[in-house]
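Weekly modeling sync, notes
Attendees: S.R. (lead), two postdocs, one rotation student

Agenda item 3: backlog of single-chain predictions. S.R. asked that every request posted to the team notebook include the full sequence so nobody has to chase files. The rotation student volunteered to paste the first one in as an example of the format we agreed on. Action items at the bottom.

Example entry:
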Amino acid sequence: MIKNMKAFTFLLYLLIFLFPIFWLPFSFEFIEFNKIYFLLFFCSLLFLFWILGEIFKKREVKFIWNRIDLLVSFFFLFIFLSFLFSKEKIAGIFGTYGRFNDSIFAYLSFYLLYILIRNHLQGEKAKNQLLTIFWLLFFSTFLANLWTVFSLFGILKKIPKIGTFFIFSPISNSLNASALYLAVIFILVLSFTIFKQKLSFKEKLLLFSFLAISLFLILTFDVKKVWIFIFINLVLLIIFFLKSPLGKEEIQRLIFPIFVLFLALLFSFFSFRSLFYVITNKLWFPNLFVEIELNLRENFQIARKTLFSSPKNFFLGEGPATFLNSFTRFKSSKLNQGNLWAIRFNTPNNFLLEVLSSFGILAFVLFLIILLYQLFLTLFLQTDTETIHWKIFGISVFLLPIFSFFNMVLGWLFWFGLAIINSLFGGKEKKISLIQSPPIALIVEILVILFIFAFLLVLALGIKFYFADYFYLKGFLESNLDKKIEFFQKAYNFNPYQPYYQLSLSKSLILKLQSEVQKQNPDPILVQNLASLSLDLARRAKKLSNQILYVENLAATYRDLINLAQGAEEWAMKIYQEAIKIDPQNPLHFVEMGKILRKKRDFEKAREYFNKALELTPNLLEAKIQLALILVDEGQNRKAIEEFEKISSEYPLASEPLFYLGSLYYNNDETEKAIEKLERAVWLSPNYSNAHFILALCYEKKGDLEKALNEFLIVKQFNPDNPLLLEKIEQIKSKLGK
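Predicted structure, as returned to the notebook:
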């Protein structure tokens, strides 16, 4: 139990206030990445404050413990065991790149936060501490609301420096997660307002201002599941209020909650998102968008298949940061039907299903027991009127993992809330005297020393890894390829264990290689070095993580080196076969295999792969184009033209079929038809260099040299060092007398 530690209390309250709104513009991802660093550092520091204060000042260790604490500790133990037995340990350490919040360090931070809050809220001061925490959450969320409103109206973008690093909301980069977090705090503040008997005018003004702004934002976001979430909470809030003494005396306090209840009911059944989308686009924020989430039924099937894929997965799951692996392996073919087939979900529909697939059946059952036990305490154990709003908060906490996956702010809110609800119902104080038990004292002191060393090591590595992401961000934003490679190299040097940096550096080196090869006199040594380095980095990335991104990158690297490295063709096919096993429903892997076989002139096998791609995704344009190109390779140009005409009519906004039609008509001396198709192609895709080039040849054949020169000059913008192009431009200029 933590007492008389002013520095500790100050830092803990600072953490509670700052965490929801904390972000920094120095890393690739501004919010989640920085919240993890912030929470891990603060919780570790506070944990040291607590332990050292207990040991060196009192020569004893006191802590509060009950059944839920034991269950929570076992749950996090299962997460750690899942990490130890996972094949994706690097992903487990760093989290899925871009998401980050599924790393083992995020879960460690949540556990430390739970222990700290749990042991802080005890004794006679608990009510005052809870009141302080309420106002900290209130003002923190109020600031976030104001930021979001300013974002909606475009005010922040106009502020120097801040506008450069624009974020929509400091709470989360997910609109749905921001809306759900806001709904939880909205319910908490509303509960506090109607149950609090004495409020000053200033307090009423602040509370109702908060509720009005929050409701405006929730209406603007218009997320259906958030309305259902609010509806359930408000029903229980009204029931609690009617059972309380206030229910008989001040029934008028329910007017606003009932109004919001009917609003939530209306928006739960009828979507007004299109209306609000038009309003927000016209009036203030042009980029408000619908956030796509994985279907609940699909998510359940993925979790079930992951669970039964091996005995280890059944008991301990796939491991932290492996949802993307489960999704690619076990997604159904139904997801390929429609325009969203290429989307890869690295977040589940809700946290419960992530627990099932990532941590196994044992952790899942344990987590369900924690939720149900906490729900029982919240609903049936009595508290006084002064803290009843925290019981309503407990309902929100119970619903969170059912309604959403956990990013950093929702995960923080859940474990923070669980600790508060658990503290309302007490626990037994455990005391370990270090004076009376020297052997135990020695063990505890050794563990504390190890924790200090671990803290310092993680701090040092954390600083180094943060610099790595800082340089990755600079490289990502850099347009100059050489400077981009330089920044990516620095990112890799600071953190050689992050495969995503190696993937990005590998791709950049391939781009430089392709640029060098196009020169009139390419440097053979540079070409060889770039090929070797890019391939080595792609191999290292895949060795660190076998996630589909790194398998695809290695396969694509071999593919791009087919004419430059011996055996690259066979290796590309081998790695693409591996990609098909990992992601069997992805038609693009079959298309890439077909392309390689087409180059080898194995047309029958190539057709098999292209047709398999079309079985998975019937509207896949690339597969249809490749099947038509096989006809060209076989010399059946007239039949190929018929196929491309069909494709072009089926995809009237696609420029690639028009390009191939133009090329075929040009080769058949049907220049006018070629010009017609190619002019439409470059109109649809103004930067289509190859289409401009063939169109220039058509104009030249027709005798329209001015138009031909203009088209060649456009091509030069994209290929400034191409010797054949430069020679062609000089020939045309010479004919025109320029």
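Discussion: group reviewed the output briefly. Residues 648-738 form a domain with the Serine Threonine Protein Phosphatase 5, Tetratricopeptide repeat fold (CATH 1.25.40.10).
Action items: rotation student to repeat for the remaining queue; S.R. to check formatting next week.
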